[in-house]
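Saturday, quiet lab. Running sequence design on the structure tokens for the scaffold JK sent over.
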């Protein structure tokens, strides 16, 4: 009887050992399908990220192109005041008060000395339109200076 039990146990072990590889083969194709789906999802996400990156780069290029175009227009619009006229009406010795600022195309403008000026920067807190000011030309750019608030300057465009 012992021999019969030992022989049965050995046969059962061989049967189980023979079945394990067949179960493993059945599972393997499912793993490949799962891996393929995962790889496809990853590729899809990568393509989406690449498209977003390209869209962002395109938008940044358009923004840079627009800024360059605006700067070129700014340079074309900017006039230079004749040196003799500038010495007679502008500079540190020629004070005036802005008094009246008008908005043209959403940008502040004022007139002085026969010229119209556009204020490029925001009007500083504490400055009044009645403060004594002067316009000076520094390194190719016109600036408005307020005598009551030294050290602050506003960039101007001569129109």
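Result came back. Writing it out in full:
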């Amino acid at each position: 009887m012992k021999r019969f039990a030992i022989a049965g146990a050995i046969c059962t072990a061989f049967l189980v050992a023979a079945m394990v590889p067949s179960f493993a083969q059945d599972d393997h194709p499912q793993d490949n399908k799962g891996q393929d789906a995962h790889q496809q999802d990853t590729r899809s996400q990568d393509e989406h990220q690449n498209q977003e990156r390209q869209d962002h780069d395109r938008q940044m290029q358009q923004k840079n192109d627009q800024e360059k175009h605006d700067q070129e227009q700014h340079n074309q619009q900017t006039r230079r005041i004749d040196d003799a006229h500038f010495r007679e009406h502008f500079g540190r010795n020629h004070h005036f008060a802005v008094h009246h600022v008008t908005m043209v195309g959403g940008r502040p403008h004022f007139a002085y000395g026969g010229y119209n000026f556009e204020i490029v920067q925001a009007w500083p807190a504490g400055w009044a339109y009645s403060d004594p000011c002067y316009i000076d030309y520094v390194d190719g750019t016109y600036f408005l200076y307020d005598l009551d608030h030294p050290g602050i300057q506003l960039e101007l465009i001569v129109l």
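Notes for JK: Residues 1-77 form one domain. Residues 106 and 118 are 11 Å apart (CA to CA). Ask whether to fix the surface positions before the next round.
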